[in-house]
Write a structure and sequence with these properties.
Oligomer: single chain
Radius of gyration: 23 Å
Number of domains: 2
Strand content: 15-25%
Helix content: 25-40%
Strand order of the largest sheet: 2-1-4-5-6-7
Largest sheet: 6 strands, antiparallel
Order of helices and strands: HEEHEHEEEEEH
Structural class: alpha+beta
Shape: elongated
Protein backbone atom coordinates (compact mmCIF):
# COMPACT_ATOMS: atom_id res chain seq x y z
CA UNK A 1 0.00 0.00 0.00
CA UNK A 2 1.44 3.33 -0.95
CA UNK A 3 1.64 6.28 1.31
CA UNK A 4 -1.57 8.37 1.58
CA UNK A 5 -3.97 5.61 0.54
CA UNK A 6 -6.74 4.76 2.96
CA UNK A 7 -7.49 1.06 3.30
CA UNK A 8 -10.99 0.04 2.20
CA UNK A 9 -12.91 -1.75 4.92
CA UNK A 10 -15.99 -3.72 4.05
CA UNK A 11 -18.63 -3.90 6.76
CA UNK A 12 -20.46 -7.16 5.92
CA UNK A 13 -23.07 -6.82 8.67
CA UNK A 14 -24.09 -3.33 7.49
CA UNK A 15 -24.21 -4.54 3.89
CA UNK A 16 -26.49 -7.45 4.87
CA UNK A 17 -28.70 -5.12 6.91
CA UNK A 18 -29.13 -2.68 4.03
CA UNK A 19 -29.78 -5.52 1.58
CA UNK A 20 -32.35 -7.06 3.96
CA UNK A 21 -34.18 -3.75 4.44
CA UNK A 22 -34.17 -3.11 0.70
CA UNK A 23 -35.64 -6.58 0.08
CA UNK A 24 -38.37 -6.06 2.70
CA UNK A 25 -39.29 -2.68 1.22
CA UNK A 26 -39.46 -4.17 -2.26
CA UNK A 27 -41.78 -6.95 -1.07
CA UNK A 28 -43.95 -4.47 0.85
CA UNK A 29 -44.30 -2.08 -2.10
CA UNK A 30 -44.92 -4.90 -4.59
CA UNK A 31 -47.80 -6.18 -2.48
CA UNK A 32 -48.98 -2.61 -1.84
CA UNK A 33 -49.31 -2.04 -5.58
CA UNK A 34 -51.12 -5.35 -6.10
CA UNK A 35 -53.48 -4.99 -3.13
CA UNK A 36 -53.97 -1.20 -3.29
CA UNK A 37 -53.90 -1.27 0.50
CA UNK A 38 -51.04 0.19 2.54
CA UNK A 39 -52.20 -1.89 5.53
CA UNK A 40 -52.42 -5.19 3.60
CA UNK A 41 -50.52 -7.03 6.36
CA UNK A 42 -53.20 -6.34 9.02
CA UNK A 43 -56.03 -8.78 9.61
CA UNK A 44 -58.35 -6.75 11.84
CA UNK A 45 -61.87 -5.72 10.90
CA UNK A 46 -63.82 -3.29 13.09
CA UNK A 47 -66.90 -2.34 11.07
CA UNK A 48 -70.41 -3.53 11.82
CA UNK A 49 -73.04 -3.93 9.11
CA UNK A 50 -76.08 -1.68 8.99
CA UNK A 51 -78.38 -4.50 7.88
CA UNK A 52 -78.17 -8.29 7.65
CA UNK A 53 -80.32 -10.65 5.60
CA UNK A 54 -80.42 -14.34 6.44
CA UNK A 55 -81.70 -16.67 3.72
CA UNK A 56 -82.83 -20.09 4.94
CA UNK A 57 -84.81 -22.69 2.98
CA UNK A 58 -86.36 -20.08 0.69
CA UNK A 59 -87.21 -17.65 3.50
CA UNK A 60 -85.55 -14.27 3.99
CA UNK A 61 -85.23 -12.67 7.44
CA UNK A 62 -83.97 -9.12 7.81
CA UNK A 63 -82.06 -7.98 10.90
CA UNK A 64 -81.55 -4.28 11.59
CA UNK A 65 -80.04 -2.42 14.58
CA UNK A 66 -82.23 -2.66 17.66
CA UNK A 67 -83.96 -5.81 16.45
CA UNK A 68 -83.47 -9.04 18.46
CA UNK A 69 -80.62 -11.06 16.98
CA UNK A 70 -78.98 -8.20 15.10
CA UNK A 71 -76.24 -7.51 17.66
CA UNK A 72 -75.39 -11.21 17.90
CA UNK A 73 -75.17 -11.59 14.11
CA UNK A 74 -73.30 -8.32 13.55
CA UNK A 75 -70.69 -9.07 16.23
CA UNK A 76 -70.21 -12.65 15.07
CA UNK A 77 -69.74 -11.47 11.48
CA UNK A 78 -67.22 -8.88 12.66
CA UNK A 79 -65.45 -11.57 14.72
CA UNK A 80 -65.19 -13.87 11.70
CA UNK A 81 -63.88 -11.07 9.46
CA UNK A 82 -61.52 -9.86 12.20
CA UNK A 83 -59.64 -13.17 12.15
CA UNK A 84 -58.46 -12.43 8.64
CA UNK A 85 -58.30 -13.92 5.19
CA UNK A 86 -56.76 -17.32 4.56
CA UNK A 87 -56.40 -17.10 0.78
CA UNK A 88 -58.03 -16.16 -2.50
CA UNK A 89 -60.75 -18.66 -3.32
CA UNK A 90 -60.68 -18.28 -7.09
CA UNK A 91 -64.49 -18.47 -7.05
CA UNK A 92 -67.21 -16.45 -8.62
CA UNK A 93 -70.87 -17.41 -8.42
CA UNK A 94 -73.01 -18.15 -11.46
CA UNK A 95 -76.60 -16.96 -11.56
CA UNK A 96 -77.76 -20.49 -10.64
CA UNK A 97 -75.42 -20.55 -7.62
CA UNK A 98 -76.81 -17.20 -6.44
CA UNK A 99 -80.37 -18.49 -6.84
CA UNK A 100 -79.50 -21.60 -4.80
CA UNK A 101 -77.77 -19.49 -2.12
CA UNK A 102 -80.86 -17.30 -1.78
CA UNK A 103 -83.50 -20.01 -2.22
CA UNK A 104 -82.19 -23.37 -0.98
CA UNK A 105 -79.41 -22.93 1.54
CA UNK A 106 -78.44 -20.96 4.64
CA UNK A 107 -76.74 -17.78 3.47
CA UNK A 108 -75.92 -14.47 5.17
CA UNK A 109 -75.84 -11.16 3.31
CA UNK A 110 -74.49 -8.11 5.15
CA UNK A 111 -74.77 -4.50 4.03
CA UNK A 112 -72.61 -1.55 5.09
CA UNK A 113 -73.50 2.15 4.89
CA UNK A 114 -69.94 3.10 3.94
CA UNK A 115 -67.44 1.12 1.83
CA UNK A 116 -65.28 -1.19 3.95
CA UNK A 117 -61.98 -2.91 3.20
CA UNK A 118 -60.73 -6.38 4.08
CA UNK A 119 -56.97 -6.29 4.43
CA UNK A 120 -55.19 -8.90 2.30
CA UNK A 121 -52.12 -9.37 0.13
CA UNK A 122 -54.42 -9.17 -2.92
CA UNK A 123 -56.92 -6.51 -3.92
CA UNK A 124 -60.25 -7.00 -2.16
CA UNK A 125 -61.58 -3.61 -3.23
CA UNK A 126 -63.94 -1.41 -1.27
CA UNK A 127 -67.18 -3.22 -0.58
CA UNK A 128 -70.62 -2.26 0.66
CA UNK A 129 -72.07 -5.76 0.82
CA UNK A 130 -70.91 -9.29 1.57
CA UNK A 131 -72.50 -12.65 0.83
CA UNK A 132 -71.45 -15.65 2.89
CA UNK A 133 -72.76 -19.15 2.09
CA UNK A 134 -73.08 -21.12 5.33
CA UNK A 135 -74.48 -24.31 3.80
CA UNK A 136 -74.63 -25.54 0.23
CA UNK A 137 -72.31 -24.92 -2.67
CA UNK A 138 -68.89 -23.48 -1.73
CA UNK A 139 -69.75 -23.21 1.97
CA UNK A 140 -66.93 -25.57 2.96
CA UNK A 141 -64.41 -23.01 1.67
CA UNK A 142 -65.53 -20.22 4.07
CA UNK A 143 -65.79 -17.86 1.13
CA UNK A 144 -67.11 -14.30 1.46
CA UNK A 145 -68.25 -12.64 -1.75
CA UNK A 146 -67.55 -8.92 -1.81
CA UNK A 147 -69.60 -6.48 -3.80
CA UNK A 148 -71.08 -3.07 -4.31
CA UNK A 149 -74.35 -1.92 -5.82
CA UNK A 150 -75.91 -4.85 -7.71
CA UNK A 151 -72.79 -6.91 -8.37
CA UNK A 152 -70.46 -9.28 -6.55
CA UNK A 153 -66.83 -9.62 -7.61
CA UNK A 154 -65.12 -12.87 -8.58
CA UNK A 155 -62.08 -14.37 -6.84
CA UNK A 156 -63.60 -13.93 -3.42
CA UNK A 157 -61.48 -14.26 -0.31
CA UNK A 158 -61.75 -17.30 1.93
CA UNK A 159 -61.87 -16.47 5.63
CA UNK A 160 -59.71 -18.15 8.24
CA UNK A 161 -62.65 -18.83 10.55
CA UNK A 162 -66.41 -18.63 10.02
CA UNK A 163 -67.21 -20.45 13.27
CA UNK A 164 -68.34 -17.33 15.20
CA UNK A 165 -70.96 -16.62 12.53
CA UNK A 166 -72.02 -20.29 12.36
CA UNK A 167 -72.42 -20.34 16.16
CA UNK A 168 -74.54 -17.17 16.14
CA UNK A 169 -76.82 -18.57 13.45
CA UNK A 170 -77.23 -21.79 15.45
CA UNK A 171 -78.08 -19.73 18.55
CA UNK A 172 -80.81 -18.01 16.54
CA UNK A 173 -82.27 -21.37 15.50
CA UNK A 174 -80.85 -21.71 12.00
CA UNK A 175 -79.65 -25.24 11.24
Amino acid sequence: MSEGQVPVRLNISRLLLVFGLFTLLMVYFTILIASRDPLWFLSGFHNLPSRILVYHNGQQTEYTPGQPGFDLLAESLRDSLDQGIARQSGLGFSEATFQDAYGKYLTVEAFFDQPVKLHAWFNTGATTKMLIPITGRHSEQSVVLLGAKDMYRVNSPALKNLQPLRDALAALGYQ
